[in-house]
Design a protein that fits this description.
With about 425 residues, the protein is an alpha/beta fold. It is built from 13 helices and 13 strands. Helix 1 runs antiparallel to helix 13, helix 2 runs antiparallel to helix 10 and helix 11 (about 315-335) packs parallel to helix 13 (about 395-410).
Length: about 425
């Protein structure tokens, strides 16, 4: 093919030089020439996250139990502190957000709080393309309330990895009590119109919540403006909080004052928590939905990571994210057209999240061949490659080099040296 400027390495370097976020790349540990494109599964460690982890570790070393109330970042209020640092990413008030638990624990907490079935309104509406853990939790909640998930859990059917919003809305029947959906589908990267879906749910007197795991940190949200009832998320993907980092939750302030479905030690109002009463006085805001003692060392890296997000700004991060995936789509279509790759993510910006889903018959083999070349993508069965460039540490040159390596391993058929099946962890 004729080489034109926009397909050249020099063009990628020019775009890197013009990138207002390019300096953040130096904030992360990139391990030499490695190209890491799996930020949609686990984000990389930043120097700021490392520092705040060490700082909190040192507070334990020097203060002992007094670290709960003393030191630069007192542990007792850290869930609220990090919640406030998250508000700019999701469009919420500080009292509506806390960093606590895990995604699945928080689903159980909020569904157990807001799912209040009656004889005629008892079903939960979800979708067949969501992450399995969400469905496991919803089925458990239905069983705990005495319902059979095979009839009480309604799953909107996806088509080619996408959900039609009209299909979601048409499934909002009179017997649906609660809706729980992903903001971004974990495979295809499709962004759902949360504002529209929420409005339609409320017209029908249905409580609605969202799983933001694959959107928070890459796609802006306006949860208050959209009147979303509740949301949950993890912090180890785009937010770079570390493996198993503590999750987060949002509860719309209009619901404040309700007893948490799952009460615990840290559900208490802070001022009376150490009165040690056996009668819970729930916190007055989202703090009521904490359960156990916060995992301080797993939260500490977020102090550094979230500070970076607030500094860079989610709108600027979103702009670069879209430009990176646009650039990759252009290069795949130009350089790999003869090798049967198919872009399975939405092409329209408002419908595409922070990662790309690329389909190929030999997807697992290709992922392994890329890893052997120092490039880390993500495989999803049966035949998909997920590529998640992160605005804060990936470059246009990363994208250009990745596509060139893909072209070479296809032309030389080196991917055939690897079994076309996933490892234990894909």
């Amino acid at each position: 093919m004729t080489q034109t400027k926009e397909y050249s390495a020099d063009y990628a370097k020019e775009r890197d030089a013009q990138d207002p976020l390019h300096s953040y790349r130096d904030e992360f540990y990139l391990n030499g020439d490695m190209i890491y494109l799996d930020g949609n599964s686990l984000g990389l460690l930043s120097k700021r996250a490392e520092k705040t982890l060490i700082d909190v570790l040192n507070s334990w070393k020097t203060l002992g139990i007094d670290g709960w109330t003393n030191g630069e970042n007192s542990w007792f209020y850290m869930t609220q502190q990090l919640g406030e640092m998250t508000t700019s990413l999701i469009g919420a008030k500080k009292e509506e957000v806390i960093v606590t638990g895990s995604t699945t624990t928080n689903i159980h907490q909020l569904v157990s709080t807001f799912y209040k079935p009656t004889a005629t309104k008892y079903k939960i509406l979800a979708d067949d393309a969501t992450f399995p853990s969400d469905i496991y939790a919803l089925k458990s909640q239905l069983k705990l309330k005495g319902y059979d998930p095979s009839s009480a859990l309604v799953k909107v059917k996806s088509q080619n990895g996408m959900l039609a919003e009209e299909e979601i809305i048409s499934s909002m029947s009179e017997d649906v009590a609660l809706i729980f959906l992903p903001s971004v589908l974990y495979r295809s990267g499709q962004v759902l119109d949360m504002e529209r879906i929420t409005a339609e749910a409320h017209k029908r007197n249905i409580i609605i919540g969202f799983d933001l795991c694959h959107s928070i940190g890459s796609v802006p949200h306006q949860l208050d403006k959209w009147d979303v009832d509740f949301a949950v998320w993890c912090t180890y993907k785009h937010l770079n909080g570390g493996p198993g980092a503590v999750g987060g939750l949002y509860v719309n302030s209009k619901h404040f004052g309700q007893e948490p479905g799952l009460a615990g030690w840290f559900s208490s109002k802070k001022e009376v928590q150490f009165d040690m009463s056996h009668e819970l006085t729930p916190d007055v805001d989202a703090g009521a939905y904490e359960i156990g003692t916060p995992h301080i060392l797993s939260m500490a890296p977020l102090l550094g990571s979230l500070a970076m997000f607030n500094e860079a700004g989610i709108d600027q991060i979103r702009q670069k994210s879209l430009k990176l995936t646009d650039y990759m789509i252009m290069l795949i279509n130009h350089e790999l057209s003869e090798y049967d790759f198919n872009i399975a993510s939405p092409l329209e910006h408002k419908k595409r999240g922070g990662h790309l889903l690329v389909q190929h018959t030999y997807a697992a083999s290709i992922c392994k061949a890329l890893k052997a070349e120092g490039i880390t993508p993500d495989f999803r069965a049966p035949n998909f490659i997920r590529i998640g460039p992160v605005a804060l540490y990936n470059s246009y040159s990363d994208i250009w080099k990745t596509v060139q390596v893909m072209k070479r391993i296809m032309a030389e058929e080196t991917y055939k040296n690897f079994a076309n099946k996933r490892d234990v962890i894909a």
